[in-house]
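We were asked to recover a plausible sequence for a given structure. The inputs and outputs are reproduced exactly as logged, with field labels preserved.

PROBLEM: sequence recovery
POSITIONS: 221
GIVEN STRUCTURE:
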């Protein structure tokens, strides 16, 4: 398993899974991360360049997000260079999936630095995007059994019940240098779908689809 080179700047967020001394950084940051907490299964939605409010890592129960492994490097959205071959990257995640040892999941610049198991991994391919592999995954935090001494019976009685995460409209915050075609490539898998984004956000963007501004929040199809 190879170690990916981090090209992110000092103020940019990175998403990393560590297996012992080996680090795997996701080459493309997810736009949205859902974190399900232990108390009432409160769900916190994290959008790029938004506000982050994470409690202590020990309270996080499940972390889910989606992204993709690009075949070719693109400085507009790739956080590592060179990007790993998508098939090799998926094999690394599959190794994590079947591993019986906990990993460590870190989101730089936040309070998320927790031991986890990768419990769910789904991949897909999109027509016209030869070589790119899209995926969504679920991580579940791991705790040593000696941590939970008080109230362990109550926790056990509730362990079988789960609440579905709320579904919210996905948005994208425009960054400097963005264009609708770049956003369509990153979020929808094809730059040709820029018009779908424009139709949903014409009131925000205005009459010229080429004049999007940093800070605008666009609703994704």
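RECOVERED SEQUENCE:
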């Amino acid at each position: 398993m190879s170690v990916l080179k981090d090209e992110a700047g000092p103020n940019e967020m990175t998403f990393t899974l560590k297996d012992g001394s080996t680090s795997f950084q996701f080459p493309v940051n997810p736009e949205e991360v859902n974190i399900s907490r232990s108390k009432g299964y409160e769900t916190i939605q994290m959008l790029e360049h938004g506000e982050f409010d994470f409690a202590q890592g020990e309270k996080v129960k499940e972390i889910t997000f989606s992204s993709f492994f690009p075949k070719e490097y693109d400085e507009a959205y790739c956080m590592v260079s060179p990007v790993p071959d998508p098939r090799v990257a998926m094999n690394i995640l599959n190794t994590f999936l079947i591993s019986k040892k906990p990993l460590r999941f870190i989101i730089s610049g936040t309070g998320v630095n927790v031991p986890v198991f990768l419990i769910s991994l789904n991949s897909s391919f999109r027509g016209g995007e030869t070589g790119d592999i899209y995926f969504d995954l679920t991580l579940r935090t791991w705790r040593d059994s000696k941590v939970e001494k008080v109230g362990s019976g109550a926790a056990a009685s509730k362990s079988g019940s789960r609440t579905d995460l709320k579904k919210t409209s996905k948005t994208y915050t425009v960054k400097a240098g963005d264009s609708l075609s770049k956003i369509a490539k990153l979020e929808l898998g094809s730059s040709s779908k820029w018009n779908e984004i424009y139709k949903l956000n014409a009131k925000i963007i205005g009459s010229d689809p080429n004049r999007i501004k940093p800070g605008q929040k666009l609703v994704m199809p």
